[in-house]
Specification:
The protein has one domain (5-121). 21% of the residues are buried. It is built from two helices and five strands, in the order H-E-E-E-H-E-E. Strands 1, 2, 3, 4 and 5 form a five-stranded antiparallel β-sheet that branches. The protein is an alpha+beta fold and 122 residues long. The chain has helices at residues 5-16, 64-77, and strands at 20-26, 40-52, 56-59, 82-92, 104-116. The radius of gyration is 18 Å and the shape is elongated. Strand 2 (40-52) and strand 3 form a beta hairpin.
Length: 122
């Protein structure tokens, strides 16, 4: 009996990835300031979760509200005074382990935007 690598990898990824939030920051704009004349940084916040029937978070919460809350919490922790959301995206991976993934599926939600007032220009 031969077991496919993808069959083993999927449960491992589902056990590791859910319930995590990642942040990334871009601060180098070659001396170009934001529209208000202040240095800006571009922040991306991504939430990963395992949801049940497209509505309920089993492990983590990758909803729009929770991801936006994490985005603003990170911006505030970095000393931001203003922010502007430029993009939001979401993906539900219901097709990964069909038909099981129709009930339990990984979800990713990303919020991106400009943040002013941090130490980006220093």
């Amino acid at each position: 009996m031969r077991i496919r690598t993808r069959t083993l990898l999927l449960p491992l990824l589902l056990a590791i990835l859910p319930a995590c939030v990642t942040h990334s920051h871009i601060t180098k704009f070659n001396g170009v300031n934001g529209i208000r004349g202040e240095p800006i940084e571009y922040q991306t916040t991504t939430s990963y979760a395992l949801h049940f029937v497209f509505l309920f978070g089993l492990l983590g919460d990758a909803s729009k509200e929770n991801t936006l809350d994490e985005f603003t919490r990170e911006a505030s922790a970095r000393g931001a005074t203003r922010m502007r959301i430029t993009q939001m995206s979401s993906a539900t991976y219901w097709y990964l382990a069909f038909p099981l993934s129709l009930f339990f599926h990984p979800v990713r939600h990303t919020v991106e935007g400009e943040v002013e007032g941090t130490s980006a220009g220093e």
